[in-house]
Amino acid sequence: MLNNWLKIAFINYKKNWLSTIINLFGLTIGLTGFMLILMHWNDEESYEKWNPKKDKIFYFQTHNKKENIYGAAISIPFADRALKLIPEVQDYLLINGSGLGYKMTTTKKTAYQQDGMTVSENFFNFFPFQLVSGNYKNALKGDNTIAISTTTAKNLFGKTNVAGENIKFDNKNFVVTAVYELPKENSQIKPEFIILSYEQMKNDKEMWGNFNYGCFFMLKTGTDQKALQQRFLKDIFEYRAKINAQPSGVTVEKYLELYGPTGSLFTPIDKIKLHAESTWFGKPDFKSIIILFTLSVLIVILSAINFINLKTAQASQRAKEIGVRKAIGSTKLNLVVQFLLETFLICFASYILSLALTEIVLPSFNKFYNKEIVMNDWHVYFYSFLMVAVVTLVSGFIPATYLANFKAIETLKGNFARSRHGVWLRNGILTLQLIISSFFIIGGLIINQQVKYMMNKDLGFNGDQIFQINFNDYGNGKPWLKYERLKTEMAKIPGVENISFSEAPPGTGNQSSSNMDYMNTSIQGRHGAMDYNYLQFIGVKLLEGRWLDPKLSSDTINNAMINEAFVRKFGWTNDQAMKREIRPGFDNKPYHIVGIVKDFNIRSLKSDVEPMIFFHYKETAWKRFGVGNIQLKLKSDDIDGTVKRIKTYWQNKVEPGYPFNSYFIDKQFSKTFENYQKQQTLFTVLNAMVLMVALLGLFALSSLMIEQKLKDVAIRKTLGASDKTLIVGLTKQFLWITFVAVLISIPISYYLMNEWLKDFAYRIDMPVFPYVLSLILLLILTFAVVSIKAYQATKVNLVKYLKYE
């Protein structure tokens, strides 16, 4: 019996070769997209899975109910008090700096080493990397110890057994206490060297307001998250509020409302890459993964729809076969199993082809996402095969049941063609397919318009020809003196037009913030320590008041400028703001507002321009230590030559042996668009795939349906119908289906795309054009595809179809 079924299957594949190819092509493309996105998702979910203590380690985030924002940082007193008072907290780890780089000197060589971290001393209790040399006990005890990776050990010493050796950098001698092997698995925490954040932690020990650290807590197994959050609120947040509320002259409740935090969130370490609200290592973007995965599933659904449509359309060709098989005793179950087998063979062949295609496309996909994914995860094979099974059942069971329900007597009499059940089924499924196609067209056009809007939006500053160089060597711990010396010396380089500094350059996203207080009102504002001329330097527009002036000593004491967002947040007018003095949380003195500038974007266009205060870097003593870059405006006549001269000067006279860490500001800011540009590219590719699959399916379906009407065409042509009339008559049904499908897709697309646009602070108004174009484009494509077969039908051989009439 099985052999007979297989023979029948292959005879039908050959007979309907176009449908077979379209089904294979559609399913292969759909499954390939599904596998790639699934591997991408699995790769993102795999971070920190290597850690044997992952079930007990949680990343801590604060929540401010008033602003509804999550913070990724904590102060030391918060963590200390939690460890002392809350039984569920067993330990905590602080991270103060990451991505650090130093020029290190050993007895063997001097080399630059990057990707270091500054942490608290119990780092290896949380991240037990494989120990190669030395030991972890007291590995980070004191300010002159360092633990290094095997890569760093080989780079500096040429071997890994180097515990006890000395390394000199940052004007200090460090002793290597441990050498470790970094995990090969995915991890956001892969430091090439680790040192204790000794001085910083010593200074911040009692500072409740210095949120300078990312924090992991080790909790007891089975800790109740809600109860833990309540303990933090009562024992930590309210305690801090009591300490500070009385000197501030407000109640505890008011203090929490003004300054927060009012809540907390604990995310398991192996979930922070995608599922945390905010982390030290960047904000997760789980929504993009879900969108891409959903779109890949939609393509598979489209392929399944093609399968169902084509199988039901072929029903008339197999009606007599089914009638004969039923007449000789075949049961309905046997017929269903037979048709499911035929579907499975196509699906399984597509699965094999998709595995090969995925392997071919994977290198390009890895390059696109900057990953190193390999096809060695059994989950990918299992879930993709499960998808094949689902497609087999869905796309096979519907037409199989439909065919198996044919009545033997009716089909043998030839009455099947008069049944309208198959027509309604095909039309309904075709409508669903076109709804999905319309959504992809509308979505693709809206995404394209949003990305273009972001790329072309006036950012409020001009980063053209502004070249930034970040410091690696911080000038013997006095970086502001290094900047001031370089400002004088680099002005002599031909092609340099102007020089300035800002701690908050556009595109970096690492600006610090604190409370800004006026009487009983407080807001969160970003810091903008800078040189006098910086705002003019990047072309920001002055709205009210004046610029900072190096001739006025008060401009390095207590004068500051603010942006429009700062004024709006307090609810002032510009005139009111110019008369105010505010107390910023980063200093212990009031600041007088002397100027207001128009808003300009320094972070991403996804976020609103935040309240920001600008002041000279010497105005607040500790801000001098944050002078970490120098920015140069280059003349336009010889930019490449000027950059070469700057690089030569820097590497020979300023930081020999260090990498030349530089970029143009406008190009750096454009990196904030990269994620959305990738979404745009992927949506365009998926859009093309969807249209291709849908149109091929439409062509094959229209071919089969028109072939069933050839006798009608012959009769009408004999009675004098013109070719034009016949083509319109044959295509009219498909055009109506397309029209209805687009109308149904419009509210669906509007809702989904409006939800996507809500993520952007700066967004386009919902355009009408994509909806209209979707309708016109699909009608044109439908007519073009169907009319090809309709035109061929008008050339039918009349004698062939009418000789027995």
From TrEMBL:
Statement: the UniProt record of this protein carries the keyword Magnesium: no
Keywords: Cell membrane, Membrane, Transmembrane, Transmembrane helix
Annotated localization: Cell membrane
Domain ABC3 transporter permease C-terminal: 294-405, 686-797
Segments crossing the lipid bilayer: 21-41, 289-310, 335-358, 378-403, 424-447, 682-706, 734-753, 768-791
Membrane-protein topology: Multi-pass membrane protein
Residues annotated as domain MacB-like periplasmic core: 20-231, 432-648
InterPro entries: ABC3_permease_C (IPR003838), MacB_PCD (IPR025857), Macrolide_Exporter_MacB (IPR050250)
Name of the protein in question: ABC transporter permease
Organism this protein belongs to: Chryseobacterium luquanense
